[in-house]
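[step 3/7] fold_predict: job queued, chain A
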Amino acid sequence: MSSRKTRVYYLTDGAMNVIKADIVFTKSSEPAVNIERDWYLYRSYLAQRKYGLVNDEVKSSSSAILQPLKLLAQYLGSPSSRTTVVEALNSQMNAPIDPDNYGVIIVGATIFIWQQNYEAALRLLHGSKLLECHALMLQVYIKMDRMDMATKVLKKMQEIDDDSVLTNLSQAWLHLAMGGEKLQDAFYVFQELVDKEVITPLILNGLAAVHICQERYPEAESALQEAEHVDSSHAETFLNLSVLSQLTGKSAQESQRYQRLLRDAHPEHWFLSDLDAKEREFDRLSRMFSPSDQS
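[step 4/7] structure written:
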């Protein structure tokens, strides 16, 4: 290890979104350590939407573990290129995958999740012993409304590392999705992270979601205002503020304002695609059942 010692604190939500990263460069005599350092570093840049930087700095001579990050930078940074990226990814999946190349597994599963191709994501993640891969599987099962399978994955994560922040956070996601009495358990996890000064939009939105489900709207609004202060263009903050404004009886204009902010900052967000599809379907049905013009 060189004289430039490094402290790294890195926390992810399991879907390539950095919750908090405090990274100081490390130089090591061990190549594997340098690769892992760069893996976390470039993922942090992706979370900051610095796609061009990742694309430029990950060279063809870089480690095979880092190469998939270049593909992810293209996918996230250029929505018009996503079809090409997915085709390239599918081509890679047809070849044998090195089980030690966690870059291919995590990035590939992440893109498949973005594409809502959950079966492909699960096939890629299946068999991996990495805690983060288990966290991704848990998220997929939640999206598929398979709480039974998500519970089984959580138990495996607890067997691997019960004290991991990612394990605790995955438990909070599952409890939030299950609702009911589990909401309070989710609240404890999110609140504990906030108390430890892990104050990020993702954590604060998780806390706000619990408050909304418990109809504690003033507390939810406070958490979302803090999240907006931390990151003024965070997608989930806009979305939750829009929902909260409707639940609290505020004007339709305010709710629509947050949706416009979401559309301006994140035009490719899944909620907007779903909303536009539903509006088109509503207009189609309205035309079908509207009274015919009388001549």
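[step 5/7] annotate
Residues 270-289 form the longest helix (20 residues).
DSSP finds 15 helices and two strands in the chain.
exit 0
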